[in-house]
Amino acid sequence: MTQTPLQSPTSPLRDKVQEIINLIRPSVQADGGDVELVDVAADGLVSIRFHGACLGCPSSNMTLHHGIEKNLRKQIPEVTKVVPVA
Hints:
The protein is of the alpha+beta class. It has a single domain (12-84), classed as Fe-S cluster assembly (FSCA) (GMP Synthetase, Chain A, domain 3). The protein contains two helices and three strands, in the order αββαβ. A three-stranded mixed sheet has the order 1-2-3. The longest helix is centred in the N-terminal third of the chain and has 19 residues, at 12-30. The chain is globular. The termini are far apart.
């Protein structure tokens, strides 16, 4: 029985996304929240998790789409969409 090797949790695309997230995080943290990179799929779908004050905040959706997703897609054309996960 052969097993498929586990994929590395890091990839060049994930590393690029993490760099941009790290640049955005101080702004989110300044408002009492935080954002964590959860996954970057091969098709460019980025999953993030909000923490702290971002949980339940009505502005978190705007932060997601007009801040995080906009910046990621501008800097990294391979990013197709950013979604929040619980």
